[in-house]
């Protein structure tokens, strides 16, 4: 039997694949965080709550309006993104002149409030949400059973990450965005409406979180604390990748998903800790992160 | 400090004492017949719907139903959130007992927290009525004269659900275990039954708690072991995610059985019958069991959060408070407040009786005996209405359902 470190090879391949799937969520969430941090210089601690809102909006669309998964994939990011725009305009925009810490505290507080409100109305056990009929079932790959839906999650999030990267690196809008990140005052002097750019960027980052939430709804229990569980890991991903680095956050997201998946085979008890161990090592050796500029 | 200042200070404090004496005395007289019950559980995390605010509602209902207020005993109920962390739980418990004069700590899910509180309450000689924690160590190696373990425990779950799975032909097991006191106890107790019945345990995986949301990796490991039964030694949100993802990975469709060793009705509600149908689980209370349970349910449902039906842990809080207040009325509030161990001894001497559980008894080791019901989750087309989720497969009398008193290793029994 083919074995690698005492683990049958097929099992190991299966775990690599599963790690990649979890990595897809880390990548999408950390991408949103990185985009927001890059331009706003704000560590968006509401991100977990906005991920959760995406899943809840999907559930509401289905149960209250009869709109299924595909509509949710389109509408939930728009709705939650809009709520993000409102939060940015009414609250976060007042803090740009202050230290980072204030933005962190504000977004952390908003996140707690949103979670509390959802917990009050929906409890903690969660709500059922099934994958759409087209994506149910799975394939037997020989070494493991691959649910169609998980495969879809990986492909879809790869496409979203790639599209975001292309938009930021290759389009005129992306060029404005990058320029505003470097020197907002100068870009404004050239006639670009920087405050609007900032608002839209925040809305876009939030929409990415909500999109990840819709993707997660059929896999995880849709409950108010679903974001909290994930977001701490995602922050570690962003720190490891380098704050504000788009490509870094995507690659680190997928990579750490795989590392975590492998830990679940070799030492399951440590699987919740391994990412933070890596974070500590990276911070000591490369304080700016793997892909960040010092 | 100068002499003058010190004298002034003394005078001021003497005057304060003189003026303060009257209100203090009055407060003491009032406190002597005021019983304070602290409901300490998970108000914000994955076990919130299993206990949380619902336990507070049930405890309040017990105060109303007990009728002690008419006999001049005031009952105050306070609530706290231990966030499933032993350090937080112990801090709240000490503050409640030392500063706020709390006499009873009620509920306390999460075995690691419950074991810590068990020690605190014993040290302070108060009363610990545990409804939501599962570990059978509370009435075994760590039993205490101040503690009653009310609703269920890992041994009884293992015997009822685990035993039924083995009898149905599930003789090889793989455990997915929450990595803390509760998961370990549930895995240990179930594995003992599996081995005693001639079955084998092929492996186990310990999942970090709290904070694990994706169980697919562990499920694939379980499947690779070729075990016939995957034993889920976890609870609440963890169980929900495990079951949901097991269905997604087609594990149940290939004939592997899932053993939901601890599942509550709120978990079934969250999963939906489509996903949960056919699972078996063990509870000591179900709202639709008989006329008395339905009557109890109709009294508490208007106050329950999100219109939840009470589960066994919450009903246990009702039953425990009712029995405690009966005992207090019997022995007098002042004596009950003064000596927690004596109060628990009196509680053990009286049979328990209430709408939620019917008749029961409390053993010398602090274990309350109550029948265990093995349920199967209905298919969507069998369910006749909201919350009609269970059909009863088997009833085990309380005396047989729980671990025999001699096997627990409780020091209270040996002496």
Automatic annotation (TrEMBL), chain A:
Biological process GO terms, please? amino acid transport
Top-rank taxon of the source lineage equals Bacteria
GO molecular function ontology, one term from the record? transmembrane transporter activity
Q: Principal localization? A: membrane
- UniProt cross-references to InterPro entries, sorted A to Z: ABC_transp_permease (IPR001851), BCAA_transport_permease (IPR052157)
Question: Where does the UniProt annotation locate this protein?
Answer: Cell membrane
Query: How does this protein sit in the membrane?
Result: Multi-pass membrane protein
For this record, the Gene Ontology CC terms, alphabetical, are:
plasma membrane
**Transmembrane spans:** 12-35, 42-62, 68-88, 100-122, 149-168, 200-220, 232-259, 265-284
Give the similarity note.
Belongs to the binding-protein-dependent transport system permease family. LivHM subfamily.
* Signal peptide (from-to): none
Q: What is this protein called?
A: Branched-chain amino acid transport system permease protein
The protein's UniProt keywords, in alphabetical order, are:
Amino-acid transport, Cell membrane, Membrane, Transmembrane, Transmembrane helix, Transport
Automatic annotation (TrEMBL), chain B:
**Biological process (GO), any one:** amino acid transport
UniProt domain Leucine-binding protein: residue ranges: 34-378
Keyword hit for Signal: yes
CDD domains named among the record's database cross-references: PBP1_SBP-like
Question: PROSITE patterns, from UniProt?
Answer: TAT (PS51318)
Q: What are the entry keywords?
A: Amino-acid transport, Signal, Transport
Q: InterPro entries from the entry?
A: BCAA_transport, Leu-bd, Peripla_BP_I, TAT_signal
Work out whether the entry's keyword set contains Signal.
yes
Which N-terminal residues, if any, form the signal peptide? none
Domain of life from the UniProt record = Bacteria
What Pfam family is a match, any one? Peripla_BP_6
**Family that this chain belongs to:** Belongs to the leucine-binding protein family.
PANTHER family for this protein? LEUCINE-SPECIFIC-BINDING PROTEIN, PERIPLASMIC BINDING PROTEIN OF ABC TRANSPORTER FOR NATURAL AMINO ACIDS
Q: What is this protein called?
A: Branched-chain amino acid transport system substrate-binding protein
**UniProt lineage:** Bacteria, Pseudomonadati, Pseudomonadota, Alphaproteobacteria, Acetobacterales
């Amino acid at each position: 039997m083919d074995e690698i470190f005492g683990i049958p090879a097929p099992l190991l391949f299966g775990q690599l694949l599963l790690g990649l799937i979890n990595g897809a969520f880390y990548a999408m969430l950390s991408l949103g965080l990185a985009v927001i941090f890059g331009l706003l210089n704000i560590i968006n601690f509401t991100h977990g709550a906005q991920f959760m809102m995406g899943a809840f909006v999907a559930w509401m669309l289905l149960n209250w309006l009869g709109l299924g998964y595909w509509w949710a994939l389109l509408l939930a990011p728009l709705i939650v993104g809009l709520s993000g725009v409102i939060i940015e305009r009414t609250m976060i925009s007042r803090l740009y002149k202050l230290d980072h810490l204030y933005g962190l505290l504000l977004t952390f507080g908003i996140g707690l409030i949103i979670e509390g409100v959802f917990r009050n109305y929906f409890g903690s056990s969660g709500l059922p949400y099934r994958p759409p009929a087209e994506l149910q079932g799975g394939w037997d790959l020989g070494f493991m059973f691959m649910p169609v839906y998980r495969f879809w999650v990986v492909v879809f999030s790869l496409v979203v990450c790639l599209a975001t990267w292309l938009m930021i690196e290759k389009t005129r809008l992306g060029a404005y965005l990058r320029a505003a990140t470097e020197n907002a005052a100068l870009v404004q002097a050239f006639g670009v409406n920087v405050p609007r750019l900032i608002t839209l960027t925040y809305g876009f980052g939030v929409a990415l979180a909500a999109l990840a939430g819709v993707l997660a709804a059929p896999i995880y229990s849709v409950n108010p604390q679903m974001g909290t569980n994930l977001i701490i890991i995602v922050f570690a991903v962003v720190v490891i990748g380098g704050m504000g680095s788009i490509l870094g956050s995507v690659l680190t997201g997928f990579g750490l998903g795989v590392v975590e998946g492998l830990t679940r085979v070799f030492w399951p008890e440590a699987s919740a800790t391994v990412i933070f161990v890596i974070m500590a090592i990276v911070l000591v050796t490369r304080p700016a992160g793997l892909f960040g500029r010092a | 400090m100068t002499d003058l200042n010190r004298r002034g200070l003394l005078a001021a404090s003497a005057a304060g004492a003189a003026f303060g004496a009257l209100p203090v005395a009055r407060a003491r007289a009032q406190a002597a017949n005021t019983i304070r019950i602290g409901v300490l559980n998970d108000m914000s995390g994955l076990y919130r719907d299993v206990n949380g605010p619902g336990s507070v509602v049930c405890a309040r209902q017990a105060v109303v139903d007990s009728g002690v207020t008419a006999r001049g005993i005031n009952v105050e109920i306070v609530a706290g959130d231990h966030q499933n962390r032993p350090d937080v739980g112990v801090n709240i418990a000490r503050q409640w007992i030392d500063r706020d004069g709390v006499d009873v700590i009620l509920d306390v899910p999460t075995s690691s927290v419950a074991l810590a509180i068990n020690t605190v309450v014993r040290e302070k000689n108060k009363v610990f009525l545990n409804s939501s924690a599962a570990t059978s160590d509370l009435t075994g190696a760590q039993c205490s004269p101040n503690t009653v373990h009310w609703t269920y425990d890992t041994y009884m779950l293992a015997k009822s659900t685990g035993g039924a799975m083995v009898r149905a032909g599930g003789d090889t097991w793989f455990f997915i275990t929450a990595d803390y006191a509760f998961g370990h106890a549930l895995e240990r107790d179930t594995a003992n039954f599996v081995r005693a019945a001639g079955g084998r345990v092929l492996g186990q995986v310990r999942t970090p708690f709290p904070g694990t949301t994706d169980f697919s990796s562990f499920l694939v490991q379980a499947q690779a072991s070729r075990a016939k039964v995957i034993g889920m030694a976890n609870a609440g949100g963890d169980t929900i995610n495990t079951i949901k993802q097991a269905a997604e990975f087609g594990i149940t469709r290939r004939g592997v059985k899932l053993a939901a060793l601890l599942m509550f009705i709120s978990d079934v509600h969250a999963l939906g019958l489509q996903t949960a149908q056919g699972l078996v689980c063990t509870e000591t209370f179900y709202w639709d069991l008989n006329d008395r349970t339905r009557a109890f349910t109709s009294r508490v449902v208007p106050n329950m959060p999100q219109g939840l039906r009470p589960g066994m842990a919450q009903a246990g809080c009702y039953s425990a408070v009712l029995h405690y207040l009966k005992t207090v009325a019997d022995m007098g509030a002042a004596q009950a407040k003064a000596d927690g161990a004596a109060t628990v001894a009196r509680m053990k001497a009286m049979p328990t009786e209430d709408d939620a559980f019917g008749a029961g008894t409390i053993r010398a080791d602090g274990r309350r005996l109550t029948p265990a019901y093995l349920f199967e989750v209905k298919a969507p087309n069998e369910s006749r209405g909201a919350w009609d989720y269970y059909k009863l497969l088997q009833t085990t009398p309380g005396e047989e359902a729980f671990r025999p008193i001699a096997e627990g290793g409780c020091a209270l029994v040996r002496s």
